[in-house]
Queue: 4 jobs
Job 1
Amino acid sequence: MSAGSNKIRVYVRTRPTPNFSHDVLKFLPDVKTINVDIKKDIRKGVVNNQPSNWSFKADGILHNATQEAVHDTISRKIISRAMEGYNGTIMCYGQTGAGKTFTMTGATESYKHRGIIPRALQQVFREIQERVNQAITVQISYLEIYNENLYDLLSTMPDCLTSESQMTIVDDPPGVNIKGLSVHLIHNEEEAFNLLFEGETNRIIAAHALNKNSSRSHCIFTIYLESHSRILSNAMYVTSKVNLVDLAGSERLGKTWSEGKILNEATYINKSLSFLEQTILALADRNRQHVPFRQSKLTYALKDSLGGNCTTILVANIFGEVAHIEETLSTLRFASRMRAVATKPVINEHCDPVRMVQKLELEIHLLKQELAMHDILVNRCQITYEPLSDSQIGEINSQVHQFLEGTLDEIEIINIRQLREVFSQFKLVLKTKQKKLYESLFTSDLVIIKREAGLVEIEGQAVGEVDGHGFGIEVAPFSSKPTRVVSYKSIVFSPLFSPSPKKESPGTPSPGKELDSRSLSRMQPLVTSGKDLDGKDTMQREQDVLSTDLNCPDSAGKEEHSRPSSPPNKAVAFEEFKIERGCEISRILQENKSILSEKKRTVKELSLRINNVKQEIDVAKQELEGKRQEREEQGEYMNDGEVVIDEEEFELIVKLKDLKSRYRSDYDTLRDLKSEILYCQQLVEQCRYRLLTEFEIWYNESFLIPEDIQANLKGGGSLRPGLIPVNRVLALEEDDHERFECLQQELLMENPDSVSFYNAKMKIEQRVSYT
Ligand SMILES: Nc1ncnc2c1ncn2[C@@H]1O[C@H](COP(=O)(O)OP(=O)(O)OP(=O)(O)O)[C@@H](O)[C@H]1O
């Protein structure tokens, strides 16, 4: 959180003196402007043409101000903001003896004259008491920079383990830290003051002419604050640090009459202050890319405070006597430059990982309770929400496979975790399939493609074979299939009820498969089981054929002809039969044969086409394999884990897919056509059988069975055609005929339903006897 961009604020504080030069230093009524008017005779050695009037701007002038006023004006607000997470820095700059230490620390022997540090510490603990909703911890450290060396002013404390040599300045974003500097946790004012005074005692002080207690070093007293909310259970907390800096006095070496060690110190002090000034100049110059913080320990240690994310205030301590006007001018110039430096205070907010985990755990616990209550209300008590075990994941994997195979209708979703796992398993299956499919494009085995597509595996078979049943294109000729060869001589009588074709016979179209209805409708079955193709039942069609025969114009005439003394040649009679009495059956047979041969021709053409496609597939696969090898030899391009192929290879893959699609389509057509052919063959056979049977009946009746017996077989007679075996009928004497008639009547009386049974039995016997 940023509080916006600010400039370093500057306050001028004067050391009270009865000899204050009001003529030279004039504070304007706005209490922000200082005019310096130096009379030429005051500035000895100054060239006359140099300016002798200056005007300096400050954010406030604390002339003869009390310690309390100084604290109220300068440090109170910084401490308050530090409690909220903003860093703050207060620096005292000025010539030696101008009152820097007095401002910062104050007179340690006088409570009334205590400086900013003790007052800040007091304010911190008072605010802690007031901020009951915050748990604030306070720590302090006290660093001294003397002759470019770092010293821990609190290292003499019992709990301090740091030695001087271990301290280094570390630029550790977002701030600078003094590694090795002891930081002390304090719980109240008293502990804080103890440490302050301890530090003051350890401060290196060397007396010189201007200040008998002159501090010859830069001191940084730091207060560290960390604030957590007592109300909110969130894991956010703020930290801040307040640097209270008492710089060593700027001085003119000649003026302080320093010599020896003191002179050496003064050199260091002036050097570091000079670097501080250069740093300030660099910070104030917006065009400067580099700010030389590291050229002195002081600037490096104050890197955060100078132009960082910190509220910074400079106290320009001046000693307003005429004798110190040059130092005063120098201090005011420095202060003016400081006012040009921008700072950007930012709240230091952090997240406590431990508290965050605790908070989230608590929230999870509460949500689980809510969920459990919800499940009880909707009768889902058996549901658990723990992470899935390996066996549960395995079960989900199995369910997904069953679902995809169709053996499982649906996967019951019980919770989000399970749902996510289901999707994950689907993804896994999909990726595996994709990988296999891709690989299959480069294999020479067509079988893998068919398996992926859910088609029948035809590995090791000739093209056109189905499941190894030897249904080969141009491989297994139809003639090799068992066909019923009906001998002209073997059939002598037509059964009223011929055996029905088996429903599941190879030649019968499989259920759900539509045959070529146009060509099949032209096929004319003579005998089928139940209903035939045009909806007539078997008995009806049988009667139609018989009636066709009876209606034949020549047949009636033939009956009128006188019977020849000896039976004619059967072959000649058969040819005659086909033209006359059996003309209709013969015509149907010829039509069926013609349809059959047409379908066989189509099969032949289709087989040739399939073989050609197969050859094209083989060629395409060879080319694709060549491309793949070439790609592997030249090194493969990868993109997101996928192999990149060139356009030619892609076109080959597409072509191969197209050819395989055509192959599958033609293959399916061929399979259906083969079923139709087998069915047609059955019809042709049935037709042929019927023709021969009818001929035998006609031939027997016309030339072999005596006429008196035939009279009994006709309508109104006691015997019906086919009821009695011909050989037996022919062998019966008159009495036997009567007895047989009686026996038959008895049997029919006893069991009328036995007619069909005896009828069929007799026909078989008749056929055997004629054979
Ligand atoms: N505002 C003041 N009111 C009363 N006495 C003061 C004030 N400012 C300074 N003094 C006195 O002036 C003397 C010098 O002050 P101080 O030690 O604070 O100067 P300094 O700037 O810190 O000098 P140095 O840089 O040498 O340490 C001290 O004895 C101090 O008590």
Job 2
Amino acid sequence: MSDFDVIVIGGGPVGENAAARTAAGGLKTALVEAERVGGECSYWACMPSKALLRPGHALAAARRVPGVPVGERLDPAAVLKRRNGFTSDWDDSGQVGWAEGAGLEVVRGRGRLVGERQVEVDGRVLTASRAVVVCTGSVPRIPKLPGLADVSYWTSREATSAQEVPTSLVVLGGGVVGVEMAQAWARLGSAVTLVVSGARPLPKFEDFAGDLVLDGLREDGVTVRTGVKATGVSTVDGDIALALSDGTSVAGAHLLVATGRQPATFDLGVEGFGFTAGDALPVDDTGRVDGVDWLYAAGDVTGRALLTHQGKYAARAVGTAIVTGATDPEPWTAPVATADHTAVPQVVFTDPEVASVGWTEAQAREAGLDIRVVDLDIAVAGSSLHADGYRGKARMIVDERRRTLVGVTFAGPDTAELVHAATIAIVGEVTVDRLWHAVPAYPTISEVWLRLLEAYGL
Ligand SMILES: Cc1cc2nc3c(=O)[nH]c(=O)nc-3n(C[C@H](O)[C@H](O)[C@H](O)COP(=O)(O)OP(=O)(O)OC[C@H]3O[C@@H](n4cnc5c(N)ncnc54)[C@H](O)[C@@H]3O)c2cc1C
Ligand SMILES: NC(=O)c1ccc[n+]([C@@H]2O[C@H](COP(=O)([O-])OP(=O)(O)OC[C@H]3O[C@@H](n4cnc5c(N)ncnc54)[C@H](O)[C@@H]3O)[C@@H](O)[C@H]2O)c1
């Protein structure tokens, strides 16, 4: 007799969703969590980072509209207090209560795969009759830099949970974590230097988006060093100094290493099933791990899309696949995460925001599609009403054969909410000819859709 039908290892947003889905399907489900139920996202990633960014954006937005009385600067104590509220002061009892209310048995401890359908948690072996689901997330990827191990550097955990504004901060890495945290702390009063190896930050996005974010960071007083690599780390007069490939160096009271993340498959027993610790678990679109019919995985640990919403989508597919026993379902059905391949939305919550879905121009060309790229400044009545001097850009990529969209990027203040329309257009495979009839309300920033279609030639 097994202890459970389903054991989920990792109680982040993805594990919570997979477990809630199997429990709702009538399966006895355990949720094994080593630290806090709610995972990285709730305590050291999405929630606290956005709570740190939002007040600075509100202040900047108010400054762009004459007649709104605004103060000179943010009140850091109030901002940090509000951020602490969003993490429940790093107390997960609320989320444990939610999990128990959803019918889950929360098991505290580190889970490890020790045999077929067997998970050891702190010396106790639990068995699952149906499936084990790995949702252990990811951990920071730390580069091998001489001297780095000898200093007390920050990762995203310290950058999102610090209780004081650092006097100065060096940020290594111009990905999403790097730009968001550079701007958040700069707007809270820190002297921030961002070190980026390419010509601009956000290399995974369209170039114009990285350029606009670069301008935004510089306007906030962030020193951005582009085109340089870090070569070593040392301590100078109590500060941490980063030596750079052009022979110069930068220093700050703290160093944030934001150079990417890697799947949390260490000390998990994956080697016993033919996988390598530190590598992603390879899964099919139902989340089933390659070659192991009772083992599933979802979220960051699969390396598919390191985003909370996409991980939760995969978790809903996994949960449905386990409950229904679907093994080879059709694409675009509930047990399949089909959208992972073509329609992943993401928002970079800087000011200006970057909101994108689907493929970049480079990705679409690499896929061999016959595409047409439509570029526009966001300059409609809605944007000029929204803010004086509004600056933004939009790109729409059309698959010329099917006359459907395969990628859209918006960059500009408050463009985040525009992206879901683009996601629906891509997932729904709506042709540009039909999209023409989706009339944007006047005067909203969404009117840029009309201008994009006109520029396409409709
Ligand atoms: C600074 C930052 C900001 C971000 N902002 C956003 C954002 O705004 N929007 C967005 O979509 N994404 C954002 N992300 C990405 C997002 O945080 C991740 O995609 C998301 O947390 C992945 O969820 P997950 O459940 O797969 O993993 P996690 O949230 O990492 O949760 C995994 C859980 O598994 C537990 N665990 C690990 N190993 C074991 C084990 N052996 N036994 C038991 N438990 C274990 C961990 O303790 C953890 O609680 C951000 C990331 C960072 C770093
Ligand atoms: N708003 C959001 O949705 C949000 C926010 C934060 C993080 N995330 C997700 O979390 C994941 C991790 O974010 P991240 O910013 O850590 O990773 P990332 O992969 O987005 O960026 C890491 C950056 O570091 C650079 N880099 C790598 N090694 C380097 C080195 N030795 N020196 C200098 N630069 C180096 C890379 O070129 C890259 O630009 C991302 O996939 C992202 O999607 C999402």
Job 3
Amino acid sequence: MENVFDYEDIQLIPAKCVVNSRSQCDTTVTLGTHSFKLPVVPANMQTIIDEKLAIYLAENGYFYVMHRFEPEKRVAFIKDMQSRGHIASISVGVKEEEYTFVEQLAQENLVPDYITIDIAHGHSNAVIKMIEHIKSHIPSTFVIAGNVGTPEAVRELENAGADATKVGIGPGKVCITKIKTGFGTGGWQLAALRWCAKAASKPIIADGGIRTHGDIAKSIRFGATMVMIGSLFAGHEESPGETMEIEGKLCKEYFGSASEFQKGEKKNVEGKKMYVEHKGSLQDTLIEMEQDLQSSISYAGGTKLDAIRNVDYVVVKNSIFNGDKVY
Ligand SMILES: NC(=O)C1=CN([C@@H]2O[C@H](COP(=O)(O)OP(=O)(O)OC[C@H]3O[C@@H](n4cnc5c(N)ncnc54)[C@H](OP(=O)(O)O)[C@@H]3O)[C@@H](O)[C@H]2O)C=CC1
Ligand SMILES: Nc1nc2c(ncn2[C@@H]2O[C@H](COP(=O)(O)O)[C@@H](O)[C@H]2O)c(=O)[nH]1
């Protein structure tokens, strides 16, 4: 790989504006058979999403992926979401009991709209086998498989039947994979996304490393259909993480899915915990994201997200913020 870069090394180049107001720009995206208000999905982590938030997101036209860390609740969750007329979007792992769970869904004729196979090293026979298992038992479910970081992996998972692949190994805010293993796309996630997107024939979800709303537009420019975000969604009023006061400031916890806090033990730990300053309401952040993305579309010279895919860019290695703080 040559010419690697990350989000803060890139600036997109404006094209002539074709709208009179940013409100004329449309941020909707289609994934599978459903359309969503934003090309953004909160990470399927226990301090980022819970049942209440899933209902809020689905009710308001946003995509969501429920986490897999309370497996016993998933059947009731799917039934509840579908009885409300909402999409059901869940996660699975690859252990033996997950095969039985998929079979149970098929027997009960419970068909989630989306299933995300949520594994650290998704380029593996275990994930390929799980894709095939889901597709043979519940073929109409849209399968998102990951996480991967190479074109070979994207092709193999697509060939096994995945409807979308999730790209990002190690760029997450609470990730320590890059430190503990020396592997991953941390530090060059945007370049890895471009590399993978060139090989993909189906949608890609860019996962991890988003630090500003502008990074969403950059992900789209480099081939993402959707962007999965943890840290930017952490710390809200509605976020499931525990709230506490630290040095007089209200904070909420955000921990990795492979951290000891999630696992309950110190085995194969590849995630950490941090405290995020309280950010107010998630609804306000979603609105701000939409407005910022509408603005991105206007700078791209179009009216829809697709306009961003074709803009020129420059690499300004590590210098965009010129030593300034982002906020
Ligand atoms: N996006 C990212 O960069 C990363 C994300 N995560 C998140 O952490 C959570 C836990 O992930 P994960 O550990 O995969 O899930 P699980 O703990 O459910 O492990 C799934 C299975 O895969 C095996 N496994 C895990 N890692 C590897 C590996 N590197 N090589 C071979 N087998 C492996 C496990 O066995 P065993 O434990 O015995 O090896 C287990 O049998 C997920 O939510 C995941 O998304 C974790 C790390 C990186
Ligand atoms: N290496 C690890 N990665 C993790 C862990 N838990 C979650 N994740 C990944 O991070 C993103 C969110 O990234 P952010 O930069 O937006 O905060 C999430 O979707 C997972 O892919 C972990 O314990 N270790």
Job 4
Amino acid sequence: MQYYSLQHQAPNVSFKEAVLKGQAPDKGLYFPTELPKLPADFIKNLATISKEEVGYTVMRPYVGEDMTDQELKRIVAETVNFDFPLVKINDQIASLELFHGPTYAFKDVGARFMSRCLGHFHKNENKKTTILVATSGDTGGAVANGFLGVEGVEVIILYPSGKVSPIQELQLTTCGKNITALEIEGSFDDCQAIVKQAFMDQDLKEAYQLTSANSINVGRWLPQQLYYFYGLQQWQQQQPPVICVPSGNFGNICAGILAHISGLPVQHFIAACNVNDTVPVFMQTGNYQPKASTPTISNAMDVGNPSNFGRILEIFGGEAEKLKTRFSSVSITDDQTKATIKEVYGGTGYLLDPHGAVAYRALADYQQQNPSQKGFILETAHPVKFPDVIESLLDIQIPLPEGATALNSQDKVSVKLAADFDSVKNWLLGR
Ligand SMILES: Cc1ncc(COP(=O)(O)O)c(C=O)c1O
Ligand SMILES: N[C@@H](CCOP(=O)(O)O)C(=O)O
């Protein structure tokens, strides 16, 4: 498989080169030259196939010749060694829980897959790779955990000061070793813009072999397809599901659409956003207008200029009208999110985190108009990551999982920097 730049001003590259570069030299995102079709038998028999075999079969065409079958099987098996249960909330809506990995959010699969790919690619290289990654909450922790101790790789995480939850912050600031956290006095969009600019900067390119571990990197983005296959393995209705994805940078839902194009039956995709509504507005008006992000209680989705929407449009040949046949996007306020957490917990006992609650509200509203269409949400983070929101709303205490208890006794270590490219560049060149 080759990858081309969505800016069309850079040469095509292999999977390995795309992972090592992160972003194309013309600032475009890499996109696969072919969208593989999976065998009809594979889809028909999905429920009987192991999650390791599903992962291997889905990822095989994307990885191409850069890895042996044996190596890819090992990487997939190590990546997906936890559960992805589809849990019924009520007769209309189920929840695909993606928070059973080590950092309690859906980012673990992509981060673990990519870290193992880089570890493999580094076996025969002696030049160190430096990963620059921007986080609005969960990517940072997952990448820190996934890359901790990986030979030949160091990770520098940029996160918006005061805009991530306490557990999220501890997850990304307490690892030490090859992981460094930069606390940026700005928003996630500032962090992401700085990272993207760094990849284009000649001085930094001379000093470092830089790549990204955000979903702009195909090694982080593509394995997110697996969730959708794991969800369908457990889906027991006749009709394919409507799948509603809490969305910020749109990497997750974009991976789901790719899975669908490869043959996975899905009725409709809903991208559920908080008030950061760049995509919902585009779907209504045709006008794509990135804007400064607004802080919300679903903080990991506070993104004003989502990186992956361009990839979604590319799948549909750039035609918004075609996209509308499979995809819609809505914006949910914090008040609606809070009311949904209360309503669902009170009515069913199911505890949603704020991101899952945004998705639940969007899917329930969609089903008001389409009552025969059942579906599931992607529950992208464990509610324990947002105790302030949940506990004040429901007057309950969420028991901390074991790993999270240990975090509380550790001290945050971060470097505070202004939200401008030069501050980060000077820090990188001066260390
Ligand atoms: C808990 C949670 N939900 C949803 C999202 C949004 O996912 P995406 O950026 O892939 O749209 C994120 C961040 O990526 C997240 O951490
Ligand atoms: N919500 C993310 C933001 C970055 O998204 P990514 O999928 O592009 O890494 C976060 O939690 O950091």
